[in-house]
Amino acid sequence: MTTSQVIRRERCLLVIAAAFLVVGVSALLIGNLPLAATGARSDGIRLAIAVLAFVACFGAAHAFLSRHLPDHDPLLLPTSALLTGWGIMLIGRLAINFLLRQTVWLILSTVVLVGIVRLSRRLRWLRRFRYTWLFGGLALLAATLVFGVNPSGYGPRLWFGVWGMYFQPSEPLKLLMIVYLASYLAERGGLIRSDGNQSEDKNVGHWRILPLAYVGPLLVMFGLATMLLVWQQDLGTAMLFFFTSLAMLYLATNRWGYVAAGLVLFLIAGLAGYQLSDKIALRVDGWLNPWPEAADRTFQIVQSLLAFGAGGVFGQGTGLGSPTYIPAVHTDFVFAAIGEEFGLAGTVAVVALYGVLLFRGFRIAARAEHPFERFLAAGLTAGWVIQAWVIMAGNAKLAPIAGVTLPFVSYGGSSLLTSFIALGLLLRISSRASEYRGRSTPSSQPTDGSLLRVALALSLALAILVALCGYWSVVRADDLRVRTDNPRRVLYEQRIVRGRILDRNGAVLADVAVADDDTVTRRYPVPEAAPAVGYASLRYGTGGIEAAFDAELRGEAGRSTWRAAWDDLLHSPPHGQDVQLTLDETLQVQAQHALENQGGAVVLLNATTGEILALASSPTFDPERLDEDWEMLREDPAAPLVNRTTQGLYQPGVALQTVIVAEALTREIVDLSTPISHATATIPVNGTLVGCNKFLSGPTALADAYAAACPAPVADLGERLGAAGLAQAIERWGLTIPPSPGIPAEAADWEAETITTTAALRSEAIGQGRLTVSPLHMALVAGTLANEGRMPVPQLARRVEDAEGGWRELLSAEEGRAVLSPDSAGILLANWPRCGGNVVGLWGAAVASEDRPPHAWFIGATLPAAGETSYAIAVLVEHAASPEAAVDIGAALMELTTSP
Known about the structure:
This protein has 900 residues and is of the alpha+beta class. The protein folds into 4 domains: 1-119, no CATH class; 120-481, no CATH class; 487-583, Penicillin-binding protein 2a (Domain 2) (Alpha-Beta Complex), CATH 3.90.1310; 600-800 and 809-898, Beta-lactamase (3-Layer(aba) Sandwich). 53% of the residues lie in helices and 10% in strands. The chain contains 31 helices and 23 strands. The strands form 8 sheets. It has a 6-stranded mixed sheet with strand order 7-6-5-10-18-19, with no helix packed on it. A 5-stranded antiparallel sheet has the order 12-11-23-22-21, with helices on both faces. A two-stranded antiparallel sheet has the order 1-2. Strand 5 (501-502) and strand 6 (508-514) form a beta hairpin. The radius of gyration is 40 Å and the shape is elongated.
């Protein structure tokens, strides 16, 4: 390739790098247009200055190299430019306040690069004064122990600060250590690489012990630098020192045994550090298993993995992700930010760019004339790639978090300056190497074979890193996105426009309010509907109908894969479909207000269709204030979050009499005209005497005792039915099966085998045993009588909107399960006392405890004319003063149901 072709190729690649930066910054500016009133204009100016500085710096560097170093490697500068431009874009996205500082460092670094290229023709000044340079770096590093600062105000003091600019001595020390190693190995490498025929060498088995006179200075300088770094707790830089030195030692010796020994020593040192240093132990524990402490000590790494999962294959887009949830994202976790906003494609591209630097750098090393230049080029390249791998692997949980910067990309002036110095040296060596192109390979080590093997080892490490990024971004992406500790999920949820929840007549029970920033707030204009509607909270999830139809209300049900992919591409959250309930707003509000200031439940339903018209539970909650009141609601002993209509289980007491009498009629043990002696006898229950709810005089038939809710005759019937008959009755009426109206429901875990005495059998028959039921159970009992012996199927959801805007009907046409014959149902219903108008019902008490008043039950139904709708109701009032408290509520609601 001619000189003009090299220059032209470099220029074209630099234009591509500049275009990438311009497009990315433009995307950031366009995304910030709505925020112009809050400072986006000044941010735009900063970004524009950074872009102009980038173009000027790399344009000047290209012009200078084209004139003074025309035979340099044409890929080094464009690759570094692309990484640097990517870093500028990310700093502008993640930490805009630091962008101008990074721009100043970029200008300074470019000037230094030009100076390095201009003044380092033979690099003798580096090779000959290796001790001076290294001791100067060590002195600077040691000075931070006394004069060092930390820009954040806490943590290790690793920087010098002047006028708001900070410099970290450990960054140039990495470079000086490589220079020292390259110079020392080039000078003493022949002795260290010898085949063991020197008299000074000692062999132990297959191991060759290097002479202390040769390796002593190497070990002393390396040990001193490492001790200072460990003293400062700069573990990432110490680890970088170690692995880079190990790579250069292999290049000098071509012996894997030394690498293995070094790794063993590293493992021993790591185990010792784990036992002695809390910081090392924390990082190792977080690396091995970060999930248990995701909200505390391992927050950073978990949020990093969540960022990879959020990015997927192609990323969220520039400025559209949420990588700022990761602390110190612009320095230590910039690779995770790339994974979120550019996806797996972006992470692969970044790794590939470092792969380009790896192969071009080792190519330069292989062509270098002098051993020092060969060692230096290989060491600088290995240092770049190892540093990049260490920080990227830490972001992806392939290695513990190291706390080093990503070369060229992360924010950090001293890191950028050091990278540009290394770039300048490599550019100079590449030009000198081109002078010897075609000549025989020098006999000096490292050999081409050792260079190739180190390059392949580093390439394998990069490939493993790419595979792990793919694991988090693709294989585990769905699991990571739905984690409850993923703040991105909350951000996404805040933008979902949930569908409305309507009553049977179209009245809105749940709606949304959309703010100017597109965040959505759930509104509940009818808080009295909370027992049925439930709640939708970003913090506490969903309940009730909100939970049962969550997919439809979120707009995710029925959404095709292509539609979901398109919405994700446009960052458009789904719009939910409406759900219409069978509830009647007027009846629901009336029922809820009737229970005000007292615990209890009301279930009102259409006895024919099973449509639930009212579902009231008290005490209840305001779903709009759920987040503010959650702790209070959760700790309230009255349990306002429990829906008593379906989840509250109570002693049925008098409400169970219909089940027992119906079973006796079905088995023809008695009929309602059967005379009853001692009908008005009372039965002691928990210290309370339970009797009829009204006075009976004269001869009494079973019908009279049943209408008066007398417990003694029912206890006698239970005794005659026996435990098996009682179990069949309870099974026939489904009292141990949770009804399924579409929201959570409960049923008692009751078995007849627990009844071992006559007293227990009589207690179960009068509803004062172990059996407990919900108000919905009892509403279905009343509905069965009103529906000619068929138990209606409870239904709360009427229809749901489909994706095309039409409605999909949800009501079932099922007639219900036959429990009684129509004649038996009619006879029982006819013996219920009237409660006003055409409303009939049965009421009484259920003893709950010795020290509190009994619960009051009322189950009722309408006696409609032919062709009219029948309704059924169950009312429970907890610890009521008298059973009439439930009767008044039930009768009023039933009359309101049948009124025009």
